[in-house]
Amino acid sequence: MAEISFVSEEVNGIVKDTLDTMLGQVTYQQSKMTQLTESVIDEVLKRLVALKKPYKYLVSCVLMQKMGAGLHSSAAEMWDTTTDGYAHVRWDNKTMFCFLTVFGVSI
Length: 107
Description:
By secondary structure, the chain is an alpha+beta fold. 31% of the residues lie in helices and 28% in strands. It has two helices and three strands; from the N terminus they run H-H-E-E-E. The longest helix has 17 residues, at 33-49. It is globular, with a radius of gyration of 15 Å. This is Tctex-1 family protein. GO terms for molecular function: dynein intermediate chain binding. It holds the Pfam family Tctex-1.
């Protein structure tokens, strides 16, 4: 079986489209963020799985109210650089930021 490389640009497109659709008109409300974060992750995973590529996906999503605060985040990984990869999207609207990362690990 030929190896398939993780295509970050393709994943970025899926993530951006999902965020535009699901968050574009949303106003940040603390009480709704847990459910919204879970819904965003579920939709991204659903769309990635629909690609039918031989990957396990790990998705991390941070929703943060725009209040002028700083945020630092990092991740480390060790994998096969010829097949595995990640995509990271920073997205925002008038009231919130979203930082979504997808790791794709070949199976």
